[in-house]
Amino acid sequence: MSQQNYIKDIARFGLENDQDKLLSTLNEFIEHNKSTKKINFALQLQSLLKDSIRKQSNQLMKVGSPTHYQSLQDRETDELILEKLTSDYSLKNLVLTEQAHDQLSNFLEEHQQIELLKKYNLPISNKLLLHGPSGCGKTLASYVIAGELKKMMIVVNLGAIVSSKLGETSKNLAKIFRKAAQEDCIIFIDEFDSLGKVRDYSQDHGEMKRVVNTILQLFDYLPQSSMVIAATNQKEMLDEALLRRFDLSISLELPEKEQIEKLINLVLKEDQFGFDEKVSLTKLIESAKGLSYYSIQKTLINAIKRSLFAMKTVKALKPKIDTQIWKDLLEEEKKALAV
Ligand SMILES: Nc1ncnc2c1ncn2[C@@H]1O[C@H](COP(=O)(O)OP(=O)(O)OP(=O)(O)O)[C@@H](O)[C@H]1O
Ligand SMILES: [Mg+2]
User: Fold this and answer.
1) In this structure, which ligand is nearest to the CA of 135?
2) Chain mean pLDDT for the chain
3) Residues 192 and 121 in one domain
4) What would the pLDDT profile of 18-59 be if each residue is shown by its tens digit?
5) DSSP classification of residue 319
6) Which of 80, 111, 202, 264 is most exposed, with the fewest beta carbons within 10 Å of its own?
7) Is 9 in the same domain as 104?
8) Is 224 helix (H, G, I), strand (E, B) or coil?
9) What pTM does this model have?
């Protein structure tokens, strides 16, 4: 886009008070100026933008892209929200088993086809549980859902929701659900087990039972257009009645051979890097087994960096990753995690 067109767009969105589009056009304009070497101007604009965002004091973070902010007025719920975000993630950022992929795609489709389902009075699945070990994509999957559906997501601040004052936790939960319904947001509750486990908590049994009952009610009366995503790595700790309330429960487990291969390709960014042949890829995949997506990705990225540093000059079009380095890092990681 030309400089003039950017200015026209910025003027239009500013006059129309369309904050969302104004900010994203401004960001694009800044990038445009950086790429056309008007660095000073770009930096001035950037600091102007940051100043104004700081003044608005409340943040809306965009994951998967550098910036996207918006102010929030509702003070009542502010402290109960960890962050409010929009996302640029899509299904292609997430490696899944075929089963999990089908489940997630169908879930997304229900929301993309919401009008059709409404027309025939069909219920819409809107309560999703993501479970599985740490580093296997629960949080990432929630970002993908927000990104694919282009919806805002409220990440609940459990620390603030769970209150020591009797009855306060339930009230806080109700406030968040009300807010999400008003603003048409997705609610993301991480570490859901700390809310939903009742049986183990003999001391504050009464209060926890009350909390579970509140969640049951909130779930039962959740408007069809709202959505709740809960994540846990301790599904077995959840109350039975609560588990039953979820329309869908997706298990995100440690990657098998097929998923490890896909993850490698994702990290290698469309073949930007290649492997040397000191250690065979099959062997490496075998060594990566038992680790989470997170650990595999982290060690591979470190191996890429170290391989790059070890090269005196990066002449090759496609720099080679030293497979022995990666293998060593994988072994170290397994040892550290006692896998
Ligand atoms: N299935 C996956 N596909 C691609 N990348 C993944 C996947 N799972 C994890 N990752 C990578 O690891 C990072 C951490 O994963 P994420 O935060 O989603 O894990 P989690 O399941 O929420 O873990 P925790 O239980 O510790 O919160 C992601 O940001 C991503 O880079
Ligand atoms: Mg997480």
Assistant:
1) 1
2) 86
3) yes
4) 888 898 899 899 888 878 877 778 777 877 777 676 566 455
5) P
6) 202
7) no
8) coil
9) 0.78
| Among 188, 193, 294, residue to substitute to test ligand 1 (most atoms within 8 Å of Cβ) | 294
- 182 lies in the same domain as 46: no
Task: Note whether 176 and 276 are same-domain residues.
Answer: no
Residue 128 token pair:
């999703």
Query: Do 236 and 286 share a domain, yes or no?
Result: no
At 238-252, the pLDDT tens digits run 888 899 999 999 999
Q: Which two tokens stand for residue 196?
A: 């939903």
End-to-end CA distance of the chain: 51
Q: Which residue has the tokens 């997170």?
A: 294
Residues 147 and 210 in one domain: yes
Q: Using the predicted structure, report yes or no on whether residue 68 has a pLDDT greater than 70.
A: no
Q: Using 50, 70 and 90 to split pLDDT, how confident is the model at 208?
A: confident
Query: Residue length, the chain?
Result: 339
What domain range includes position 40? Answer: 3-56
φ/ψ of 315, rounded to 5, equals -90, -40
Q: How many CB atoms lie within 10 A of CB 56?
A: 14
Q: How confident is the model at residue 69 (pLDDT cuts 50, 70, 90)?
A: very low
* Nearest protein Cα to ligand 1, atom 27: 134
| Residue 66 belongs to some domain of the structure | no
Are 273 and 320 in contact, with CB atoms under 8 Å apart? Answer: yes
The amino acid occupying position 338 is A
Confidence of residue 7 (pLDDT cuts 50, 70, 90): very high
- Pocket (CB within 6 angstroms of ligand 1): 94-96, 134-140, 233, 263, 293-294, 297
The minimum-distance atom of ligand 1 relative to the CA of 136 is 8
Distance (Å, whole) CA 70 – CA 56: 8
Please report which confidence band the pLDDT of residue 206 belongs to, taking 50, 70 and 90 as the band edges: confident
Domain boundary among 226, 251, 276: 251
If you ran DSSP here, which 8-state letter would residue 179 be given?
A: H
Segment 145-174, tens digit of pLDDT: 999 999 999 998 887 787 767 778 888 888
Q: Would residue 69 count as lying in a domain? A: no
Asked if residue 192 and residue 45 are part of one domain, the reply reads no
Alpha-carbon dihedral sign for residues 31, 32, 38, 42: negative
